Amino acid sequence: MSSPSPSQLSLEATPVHALAEPRPVDSALQTAFPILAMLSFCHFLNDMIQSLLPAIYPLLKDSFRLDFGQIGLITLTFQITASLLQPVVGIYTDKKPMPYSLAIGMGFTLTGLLLLSHAPNFPALLLAAALIGSGSSVFHPESSRVARMASGGQHGLAQSLFQVGGNVGSAIGPLLAAFIVMPRGQTSVAWFAIAALIAIALLTRIGGWYRAHVPAHRAARASLSTSALPRRTIVVTMVILGFLIFSKYFYLASLSSYYTFYLMQKFQLSVQSAQLHLFVFLGAVAAGTLAGGPIGDRIGRKYVIWGSILGVLPFTLLLPHANLFWTTMLTIVIGLVLASAFSAIIVYAQELVPGRTGVVAGIFFGFAFGMGGLGAAVLGELADHIGIEAVYGICAFLPAIGLLAWFLPAMEKPRRA
To answer: Do residues 167 and 43 touch, judged by C-beta distance below 8 A?
Structure first.
């Protein structure tokens, strides 16, 4: 019998009991770095567009006379449309892959972006946010699946490369908003339609690669064994991961949505200066995301999750009491440490439930987005009542939930090679 060619192999999830010894499928197939690079760049463009929305909140607040509660509602609308649809997309495409859905989803983002640039009132802003969120609901679970297929067995590295594109885009968006949108007004948002068109072209090409690998993808799924862990353990572990996602994204919502207002109120910074500080923080998030996956491949994902969520607690407790310099330094450390968890959580969950790459990615990306949106809405209302500085004092304790990582089962041995 001739050995299978690389094109006949898939990079689907490795069974839990086989993680210490990579399967022949994984070791035989080379990592598809060109696909990962294009996927990461499209993630960069996608999240750059999405980050424009919170970055122009000060402009929208003044133009439409919004309060913090309405700003939180815009974020909630975006995050809910993104989060609720993602598991549905993952469940459907696990059974029936749709390679070109990535490009179609980006079309929704393009439509929402153009509407945002000419929205005449608050309901139109909500509709624009919903369209951008719908595009995201398709992009993230399907892109995560393609990243795993192209990983060559280096699942943590592939997820980090994929996710770092999004984090860099999220960091660049506020910077572009500060120098392009804020001086020129709301209509200048339409210029970013060029980025969406580039992404559509690249995602169409990625869809062709994905389509060529669908038969191998299905064959590998059929050969996967079930998890070695009991069903009850899997359910409890997923719940614990959900609490950790809640902790991470509720806290991140306090920074991504309200950090500029916090700096402007506490330190009397200008809008542009505050957005530059937000850019620095989001850049640290991008760096942390890139590091988390490879470190998890090397030392074990449980340790990355544990250290990332709980390890950030001393810095969040210090943040509300720091001056401007130390506020900047602390948010850099917080971004680096806290962001390293998500790649590890995604791959850990995919290995917990082998063969369900799309639905796991959809659930966790969707839940993360949902927690971010809920956090923005709740914290916005809270800020209207007790002040933005008091909100940061309360949020400082959220990383203590990281203690739950103690109960996560150790599913793999460290790979030190």
So the answer is: no
